[in-house]
Amino acid sequence: MAKKTDSQSKAIAGRAAQPVSGSHALDFGKAWTYAPSPEATDHIKLDKRYELFIGGAWKKPRAGKYFSTISPSTEEKLADVAEADAHDVDLAVTAARTAFDKYWSKMPGRERAKYIYRIARAIQEKARELAIVESMNGGKPIKESRDVDVPLAAAHFFYHAGWADKLDYAFQGRRARPLGVAGQIIPWNFPLLMAAWKIAPALACGNTVVLKPAETTPLTALLLAKLIEECELPPGVVNIITGAGPTGAALVNHPDVNKVAFTGSTDVGKRIQRAVAGTNKRLTLELGGKAANIIFADAPLDQAVEGIVSGIYFNQGHVCCAGSRLLVEESVHDVIVRKLTDRIATLRVGDPLDKNTDVGAINSKMQLTKIQELVKAGEDEGSTRVSAACALPAKGFWFPPTFFTDVAQSSRIAREEIFGPVLSILTFRTPDEAIEKANNTMYGLSAGVWTDKGAKIFWMGQRLKAGVIWGNTYNKFDPTSPFGGFKESGFGREGGRQGLAAYVELEG
Ligand code: ADP
After folding, report:
1. Among 97, 241, 261, 404, which residue is least crowded by beta carbons within 10 Å?
2. Closest CA to 279 of 257, 250, 248
3. Domain boundaries, the chain
4. CA of 26 to the centre of ligand 1 (A)
């Protein structure tokens, strides 16, 4: 770690203690104050209550139980959502099995492709509504949901529609057969995009689906169910059921599920792995991360600072591949810290529906408590905290963009996934030390390398134990590119040809 002089420490700590923008000669915050520019929501027609989408119809949950889903930025209730129990899960799996046997597994790939293309186009047509509801229900800025989540969700359906009639060419002459019924469980950070990541390859490969969105963000998956209904897929090919952990567990444990695909926390992933052990269910897990974003002294530093910001602050750090550990070459530590201090002072935190918002709401009260607890642990362990001194709205769940310097590798904030807009900065002197520190984690989902030298990116790439490595960029996704982890970040890949392999049995 770079040793700072006392006066340097105070300068940084001093900035944290008072409004960051006010402590700097150039007051970016005021220079660029924008008028509010919220997306209109009057055309969004949410139902008061959502049932379960099973067998192509909307079914009431047998037990008659519902739970509320709220907007994390206002704490207002948006809708009631059905809570599926084991009986409802059984109905959904049975519907998926019937659809598999009767229609989907028998349909030629070129016909399946037409349906999948139709879903892709329907997402594009409803893009605005989907983006707004995503931001209302999840708290992420409309910039992100409009420009990233929704277009990528459509792209995943387009991409996989293209594979549906070409599976015989995907695996070097081997014949690919579908697995059957896929039980898919997704988290709250990319509700629509994760649904697309899971459903599109499953359908392309001829499987049928029961998908459960996260309990805090069910709405865009339910809107997707409506689109799928409008696309007239055969009944039961896609079933979308809502509920919390017990609903997910019932899906995982259902004996007629052939494949479980899970994205979420490492804890729950381990539980699921235990639950399917000894069965012949196929499993892919995409779990937590503690990615290292590595900045060499020869990197274009301003660009790197933008990469850091998009890697951890946009999306409130609610990304499993968030660049939550910054490894900076010691000689540029102070300049990076200064640039980052200035940059976070310009980030606009607030209404997710405002087109100028950079950092939205934390997804739930529970998540906010977890972030606060880990930040306190960072302070207690002696790291130096810098937070943007932005005004936070009175209602809703918020956390200001924050980073820590003087972080030891053993600190909790350097080891545990915070899943919030909180960055831990460490330093290194040599590429070998950067590799040692970057790999010193139980996770291995992603990493970033910033340097002027392409050869150094490749050298690092060969040694970093992470599934995705970005070079001079961060958090970029494409359906053609496989995504997945090493170590406790899980196994299996989603996207690309490799992602198809998780949904087929190969013969010959
Ligand atoms: P996160 O920390 O991202 O909220 P979780 O792992 O708690 O991740 O949740 C991810 C998804 O897993 C959610 O849809 C949640 O309802 C579901 N889930 C939680 N517990 C279980 C469980 N025991 N079995 C199956 N799914 C579960």
Report:
1. 97
2. 257
3. 7-35+289-471, 54-287+485-507
4. 45
Residue 39 designated active-site: no
Which residue in the list 320, 390, 416, 494 is annotated as catalytic? Answer: 320
7-35+289-471 fold: Aldehyde Dehydrogenase; Chain A, domain 2 (3.40.309)
479 lines ligand 1 (CB under 6 A): no
- What pLDDT, on a 0 to 100 scale, did the predictor assign at position 33? 75
Which ligand 1 atom sits nearest the alpha carbon of residue 263?
A: 10
Token reading at 78: 């948006």
Q: Which residues pair with 80 in a beta bridge?
A: 49, 68
Cα(187) to centroid(ligand 1), Å: 7
The ranges of the chain with pLDDT < 70 are: 1-32
Q: Does 89 contact ligand 1 (Cβ within 6 A)?
A: no
CA of 3 to the centre of ligand 1 (A): 41
Q: How far apart are the C-alpha atoms of 400 and 21, rounded to whole Å?
A: 13
DSSP conformation letters of 454-465: HHHHHHHHHH--
The DSSP secondary-structure symbol of 148 reads I
Q: Is 110 exposed, middle or buried (0-12, 13-18, 19+ CB in 10 A)?
A: exposed
Instruction: Give the rounded distance of the alpha carbon of 178 from its chain centre.
Output: 27
Mark whether 320 is an active-site residue.
Answer: yes
pLDDT of residue 32: 64
- Distance, in Å, from the CA atom of 295 to the CA atom of 284, rounded to the nearest integer, reads 32
**Residue 271 CB–ligand 1 contact under 6 Å:** yes
Residue 46 contacts residue 71 (beta carbons within 8 Å): no
* Residues in Cβ contact with 169 at an 8 Å cutoff, skipping those fewer than 6 apart: none
Between helix 266-276 and helix 245-253 the angle, nearest 10°, is 30
Rounded to 5°, angle at Cα 187 from 184 and 189: 140
| C-beta of 245 in contact with ligand 1 (< 6 A) | yes
Given 3.40.605.10, 3.40.50.1820, 3.30.70.2190, 3.40.718.10, which CATH number is that of 54-287+485-507? Answer: 3.40.605.10
Q: Is 239 left (phi over 0), alpha (psi -120 to 50) or beta?
A: beta
Alpha carbon of 443 to ligand 1 centroid (Å): 18
pLDDT of 487? 93
Q: In terms of C-beta density within 10 A (0-12 exposed, 13-18 middle, 19 or more buried), how is residue 464 classed?
A: buried
- Closest approach atom of ligand 1 to CA 267: 6
